[in-house]
Specification:
With 441 residues, the protein is of the alpha+beta class. It folds into three domains: 46 residues, Transferase, Pyrimidine Nucleoside Phosphorylase, Chain A, domain 3 (Up-down Bundle); 242 residues, 3-Layer(aba) Sandwich (Pyrimidine Nucleoside Phosphorylase, Chain A, domain 2); 88 residues, Pyrimidine nucleoside phosphorylase-like, C-terminal domain (Aldehyde Oxidoreductase, domain 3, Alpha-Beta Complex), CATH 3.90.1170.30. Helices cover 45% and strands 16% of the residues. The chain is built from 17 helices and 14 strands. The strands form four sheets. Strands 1-4-5-13-14 form a five-stranded mixed beta sheet, with helices on both faces. Strands 6-9-11-7 form a four-stranded antiparallel beta sheet, sandwiched between helices. A three-stranded antiparallel beta sheet has the order 10-8-12. α16 packs antiparallel against α17. It is globular and about 70 Å long.
Length: 441
């Protein structure tokens, strides 16, 4: 078998066999196929695409290129949740404790945040001492003790994907459905959860800007998950504006805890209840989503969801005094009020640009070596469709560098588009994708 023949085959729009896909993934991961030949193959795939079977085979080959985390030692039906990335997205920190408090094991391995989208691990490291690196024995023990564990991926999960993604990034071959779907799912499926829910974001702050593209990606990932023998569904949710009101690690953690106590923003709570109820059905904890939602609402009201979050922090050696007293979380030296120069309604609030503002303040990473300022970020006092008066506060900037804070203030003045009321109400959830098809709301 020769890589030359495989490149030529895909260039000529032919279907690759399972054996050929296994060959290219193994040989490229081992360094036996050079970058220039793999670049040629990626470009051929980019233009000529892969079918459902090829995409599943590529995912399986990438999974088998590294470690597979065996979760069979954890009692019960294990569930996981993945977001394709957004701004202010703390759903994992809310859904995880809620479903765990219902007796369902929630096990998630996450990567770090990069660019304008925040990472779950970075948010959890706002707590002093919080350990994200756990070995398999600690992961299984924590999950059996508390039903919840959120930790970092081992270095050797889907190494083929790491190498292929780096090459795609510099050869303009990122935006291909099969390559995106297999990249995401290879990392998810290498961790042995029984059921997965995917939160596919759409809008200005998301990778997918159009609904049709988000649906196609969701379908591809659900097909992969089901083809691999895992119960998989996808939710398509709005990321035209940040989720919730907080953007920045400690600020988002504070908001997530308040949501678990029943005092969070409505959009964040509603998306968390929607996703959480579906996870309870997938785990066979309840029969219907209505029943699941009612149970989750009881779990919040009783304080059990909040208590479960405290357990998560305690078992991973974080400082629970910062959960019990939110004033002990990292705080910025300065808070700048961004005032409105006109009256009307907030028409739009570009999520990506707000994420870039938070990045400038130090809340995110330009690259993996960047240092994070856990205290910095933005509180969105006004969001889309909110009424605004002249000189009313639109947002609060939390920063430790006044010069950067003033720069972000100017940018936010332009990001907030104030005008007449939008004719169409904003949507939080666009639809659901399952093995049975697409349901739009």
């Amino acid at each position: 078998m020769r890589i030359y023949d495989i490149i030529k085959k895909k260039r000529d729009k032919e279907e690759l066999t399972t054996e050929e896909i296994n060959f290219i993934v193994e040989k490229y991961t081992n360094g036996e196929i050079p970058d220039y030949q793999m670049s040629a193959l990626l470009m051929a795939i980019y233009f000529n695409k892969m079918n459902k079977r090829e995409t599943l085979d590529l995912t399986k080959a990438m999974i088998n290129s590294g470690d597979i985390v065996d979760l069979s030692g954890i009692n019960g039906i294990k569930v996981d949740k993945h977001s394709t990335g957004g701004v202010g997205d703390t759903v994992t920190l809310i859904v995880g404790p809620m479903v765990a408090a219902c007796g369902v094991p929630f096990v998630k391995m996450s990567g770090r945040g990069l660019g304008h989208t925040g990472g779950t691990l970075d948010k959890l490291e706002s707590f002093r001492g919080f350990r994200v690196e756990l070995d398999d024995e600690e992961l299984i023990n924590n999950a059996n003790q508390t039903n919840i564990c959120i930790c970092s991926q081992t270095a050797n999960i889907a190494p083929a994907d790491k190498k292929l993604y780096a090459l795609r990034d510099v050869t303009a071959t990122v935006e291909n459905l099969s390559l995106i779907a297999s990249s995401i799912m290879s990392k998810k499926l290498a961790i042995g959860s029984n059921a997965i829910i995917l939160d596919v974001k759409i809008g200005s702050g998301a990778f997918m800007k159009k609904l049709d593209d988000a649906i196609e990606l969701a379908k591809a990932m659900v097909d992969i998950g089901q083809g691999y023998g895992r119960e998989t569904i996808a939710v398509i949710s709005n990321m035209d504006e940040p989720l919730g009101r907080a953007v920045g690690n400690a600020l988002e953690v504070k908001e997530a805890i308040e949501t678990l106590q029943g005092n969070g923003p409505e959009d964040l709570l509603q998306l968390s209840l929607f996703i959480g109820s579906k996870l309870l059905v997938l785990a066979k904890r309840v029969e219907t989503e209505i029943e699941g939602r009612e149970l989750l609402e009881q779990i919040i009201k009783s304080g059990a969801a909040y208590d479960k979050f405290k357990e998560l922090v305690k078992y991973q050696e974080g400082d629970i005094s910062q959960v019990e007293n939110l004033n002990l979380l990292p705080k910025s030296e300065y808070i700048i009020q961004v005032k409105s120069t006109k009256s009307g309604y907030v028409k739009s609030l570009n999520a990506e640009e707000i994420g870039q503002c938070a990045l400038l303040l130090g809340a995110g990473r330009e690259n993996m070596e960047s240092t994070i300022d856990y205290s910095s970020g933005i509180i969105l006092v006004k969001k889309v469709d909110d009424k605004v008066e002249i000189d009313e506060t639109l947002a609060e900037i939390h920063c430790n560098d006044m010069e950067l804070g003033k720069e972000v203030e100017k940018r936010l003045q332009n990001i907030y588009v104030i005008g007449t009321r939008n004719e169409e109400p904003k949507k939080l959830i666009y639809g659901l994708v399952t093995k049975d098809g697409v349901e739009l709301y």
